[in-house]
Design goal:
Elements: H1 3-25, H2 31-45, E1 53-59, E2 62-70, E3 74-81, E4 90-91, H3 93-112, H4 124-135, E5 141-148, E6 151-152, E7 157-162, E8 165-172, H5 174-182, E9 191-193, H6 194-198, E10 202-206, E11 215-222, H7 223-233, H8 251-262, H9 267-270, E12 274-278, E13 280-285, E14 291-297, E15 300-303, H10 305-316, E16 325-332, H11 338-348, H12 365-374, E17 392-394, H13 399-405, H14 410-419, E18 425-427, H15 428-438, H16 442-445, H17 449-462, H18 469-492, H19 498-512, H20 519-525, H21 530-549, H22 557-560, H23 564-571, H24 579-582, H25 605-611, H26 615-628, H27 633-647, H28 654-669
Parallel strand pairs: 3-5, 4-6, 5-8, 12-16, 17-18
Antiparallel strand pairs: 1-2, 2-3, 7-8, 9-14, 10-11, 10-14, 11-16, 12-15, 13-14
Helix pairs in contact: 1-2, 3-4, 7-10, 8-10, 15-17, 15-18, 15-19, 18-19, 18-20, 18-21, 19-21, 25-28, 26-27, 27-28
């Protein structure tokens, strides 16, 4: 297959996915928005963006399709040039330049005047303009993304300066997208030519012998060089190290900051430096003696992300880095071994902050097992043709397309698509979204795909899950719940904040029913029943009231949705579970008789609280946890054991009470009523 044939095939698949999603949402004019959402996901996954949301606004000299603000100092604006043509049409440099100017037009309008006051207050455009206005003083860099399903001859990256701020324009056309999604890598490789960029190679020590799996070298990297590299590539450098820079919130980060500011010459002595990987390194002989790195390919920092971001932040703040040096260990790993070896380096090499299993991301055994289940579990037959399909878990971006391409002939590819429909594909960030919404954390979901995923993985590391067939079926039920709610919310035509409305509506349903919605039935039907859909529509209006009408005066709606206080407000809203929904909830089978808890004389408040709970409530809690898939088996057993002791008039032990209180608090948080 020629390159053009491959590009045309990719464009055709992309257009079909856009058409399908737009048709489902019932509006042809939404094709551009669907394409924008897809591109935002790609750019976030590639590390080009930390987070962004689709948001359309057109005015004189302005046209924008999405935006986001990273660390409050980088404004990302997105312009979409959607054509819908197969083969892809050409996009002229004039079109790209015009799109860039219109993005800058929004920035200038928001910076120089309260432009948001001209917009409808309940619209996403108002929220965007207000957010930019409020952040204008701290914005140091603008990133303009021009994304298109056409072919562009414009320069991929152009860096300019305006009013003392760096303006970086990136063009993502169909060819660049195709290369990224078919390269087998989750991002565009970062190449650093030290000779060209800094005028000299980076001196290093090498092992002197190549190992079967890797080569290694040590270097002392000038702080200014590290800050310069991070300034250009940002989060892309940290793709294999998911820990976010915590704004100097932790003790380690404050120590880094203080050393850079007060004792820069001692930074090398005090700091453990960074660990990085590369797939290829070019070495040269240095004058006199020794060797140096002239060029490094596919650079990734797997440990020391906080150090790197702190050095960059110090330079932005005006700290002189001329005396700062950073130790760097570089492990050169063949591309085919990156996924295997890099997570192990990230796990074992770190010595600043503990790296949890959450840091291993897609290579975590949990995700590998979910992927394995998704390749073997068939959905129930829901039509007369007895057709069964699979839900495809895309643990790493590009797996779906890779699997499709391996089918070879067009006929086999059509058959594979019928078995694995595109709308039944979901990613690891989707998984985190489904789970955290159901776990009543809509404010975390509202923080964006990557931040929510990090939160989910942190929770998973505290309470590990062993994926089973039953777990996967319940997960798919949550996916169906999310996807169907998206369509219901779209049909209500609120005009914005769809993802927030979906997350908050599902979270409220989860809490009001104590997570007793029959997920098993949703799996069997591969759909929601009418009463549940009607309930979700009701809840979307409750969510709109909380998010928009009850937001604090002058609040940015997007930021309000990220606050736990917003969720508490939603949780406390009066809403009765409809009778038809209530009658279909999972039955807990609470025992019909009980002796009640006996009063206990004790100075231990945990023991007293647990002993005051009716034994039948402990039995019900254990049953509820089993029916809803909550808690670990030992926690369910402990709940039952405490109930048995209470039946016999015996209080729990101090240790049992400590764990029992935590279990009870978590169950009540999720809506369990004892």
């Amino acid at each position: 297959m020629s390159t053009d044939d491959g590009l045309t095939g990719y464009a055709r698949d992309l257009q079909q996915a856009v058409l399908l999603e737009a048709d489902v949402e019932g509006a042809e004019q939404m094709r551009s928005e669907v394409f924008t959402r897809h591109l935002i996901d790609v750019l976030i996954e590639a590390g080009e963006l930390e987070d962004a949301v689709p948001c359309y606004l057109r005015d004189r000299g302005i046209e924008v399709h999405g935006y986001g603000i990273d660390d409050e100092d980088t404004l990302n604006l997105i312009a979409t040039l959607y054509r819908g043509d197969v083969p892809p049409a050409s996009v002229s440099p004039t079109d790209v330049n015009t799109a860039s100017r219109r993005l800058l037009g929004l920035w200038e309008r928001c910076r120089d005047q309260p432009y948001h006051e001209r917009l409808e207050e309940s619209s996403e455009a108002y929220d965007m303009a207000l957010h930019i206005r409020q952040s204008a003083q701290s914005i140091r860099r603008l990133q303009l993304f021009v994304v298109s399903d056409g072919r562009s001859s414009s320069d991929r990256v152009v860096v300019e300066s305006e009013d003392g701020k760096e303006v970086r324009r990136s063009v993502w056309d169909i060819e660049r997208l195709h290369r990224l999604e078919t390269s087998g890598q989750p991002r565009e490789p970062i190449e650093i030519d030290f000779l060209d960029r800094f005028g000299a190679p980076l001196p290093c020590l090498t092992t002197g012998r190549g190992h079967k799996d890797y080569d290694a070298m040590l270097a002392v990297l000038p702080g200014e060089w590290l800050a310069d590299i991070y300034h250009q590539y940002g989060a892309r450098l940290l793709e294999l190290n998911v820990r976010s820079f915590l704004q100097a919130a932790g003790k380690v980060n404050r120590g880094i900051r203080d050393t850079l500011r007060d004792e820069p010459e001692r930074f090398l002595a005090y700091n453990n430096g960074i660990s990085a990987t590369a797939s290829e390194v070019t070495l040269v002989d240095l004058p006199g003696d020794g060797r140096g790195v002239a060029r490094i390919w596919d650079l990734q920092i797997v440990n020391g992300g906080q150090t790197t971001a702190s050095v960059h932040r110090a330079r932005v703040s005006g700290v002189d880095l001329s005396e700062v040096a950073v130790q760097a260990k570089v492990t050169v790993v063949p591309p085919e071994r990156l996924d295997e070896i890099v997570p192990l380096i990230s796990r074992y090499a770190n010595s600043q902050n503990k790296v949890s299993e959450a840091d291993l991301r897609a290579n975590d055994p949990f995700h590998v097992e979910v992927e394995s289940l998704s390749r073997t579990i068939w959905t129930p037959s829901v039509d007369e043709a007895l057709r069964q399909t699979r839900w495809f878990y895309e643990r790493a971006r590009g797996q779906y397309r890779d699997a499709l391409s391996r089918e070879g002939t067009p006929a086999r590819q059509r058959a594979w698509r019928a078995t694995h429909p595109n709308h039944q594909r979901f990613s690891k960030t989707d998984l985190a979204k489904f789970e955290n919404a159901w776990a009543q954390l809509p404010h975390e979901v509202s923080r964006g795909a990557q931040k929510n995923f990090t939160v989910y993985m942190g929770l998973l590391s505290q309470n590990p899950i062993k994926p089973t067939i039953e777990y996967f079926q319940r997960l798919v039920a949550k996916a169906i719940l999310w996807k169907r709610t998206e369509r219901l919310v779209t049909a209500e035509q609120f005009g914005g904040y769809r993802a927030n409305l979906v997350a908050y509506g599902i979270a409220k349903l989860s809490h009001s029913t104590a997570q007793r919605v029959d997920l098993g039935l949703i799996w069997e039907q591969q759909a929601l029943d009418e009463s549940l859909e009607n309930a979700l529509v009701e809840l979307s209006h409750v969510a709109w009231k909380v998010l928009v009408e009850m937001a604090p005066a002058g609040a940015n709606i997007t930021e309000w949705a990220k606050q736990e206080r917003c969720w508490r407000t939603m949780r406390d809203q009066s809403w009765e579970v409809p009778a038809a929904v209530r009658s279909a909830l999972v039955t807990l089978g609470r025992p019909s008789e009980g002796n009640g808890a006996s009063p206990v004389e004790t100075d231990d408040p945990a023991v007293a609280e647990c002993a005051a709970v009716d034994p039948d409530d402990w039995f019900a809690l254990s049953n509820w946890a089993k029916q809803t898939g909550n808690l670990q088996p030992w926690q369910r057993k402990l709940s039952f054991d405490i109930g048995i002791r209470a039946k016999r008039g015996r209080p729990p032990s101090t240790k049992q009470a400590q764990y029992g209180k935590r279990i009870l608090d978590e169950a009540r948080r999720l809506g369990f009523r004892d």
